[in-house]
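[recover] target loaded
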């Protein structure tokens, strides 16, 4: 999901159809809403985050249909810029804790349905 979000962020494409391959529900709304806000504000991103996700729980245990995921993502190489190419601010990015839930959908694909991203240095 984060690679798809990073790709869309390079042009602030809130209508990128490929996002729904990786996210649904609240997660998709957050991604597209953030991209739309960036579009309106003339912002794009360059680079992408580095993720190290790990599953922390499955439900039900024998045949999971939902999983909880924890990550400590590195956003130092995924920064926001104005469309004129200037860096938005001097915030360097850093390590952020991400908690997420992914669910198995009826089409057989797993999608992130909700997530929360912590502040810088939260992991």
């Amino acid at each position: 999901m984060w690679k798809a979000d990073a790709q869309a962020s390079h042009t602030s494409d809130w209508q990128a159809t490929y996002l729904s391959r990786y996210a649904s529900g609240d997660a998709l709304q957050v991604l597209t809403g953030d991209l739309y806000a960036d579009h309106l504000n003339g912002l794009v991103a360059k680079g992408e985050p580095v993720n190290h996700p790990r599953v922390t729980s499955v439900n039900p245990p024998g045949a999971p249909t939902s999983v909880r995921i924890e990550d400590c993502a590195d956003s130092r190489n995924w920064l926001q810029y104005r469309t004129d190419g200037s860096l938005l601010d001097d915030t360097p990015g850093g390590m952020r804790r991400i908690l997420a839930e992914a669910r198995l959908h009826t089409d057989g694909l797993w999608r992130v349905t909700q997530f929360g991203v912590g502040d810088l240095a939260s992991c």
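[recover] notes: The two ends are 20 Å apart (CA to CA).
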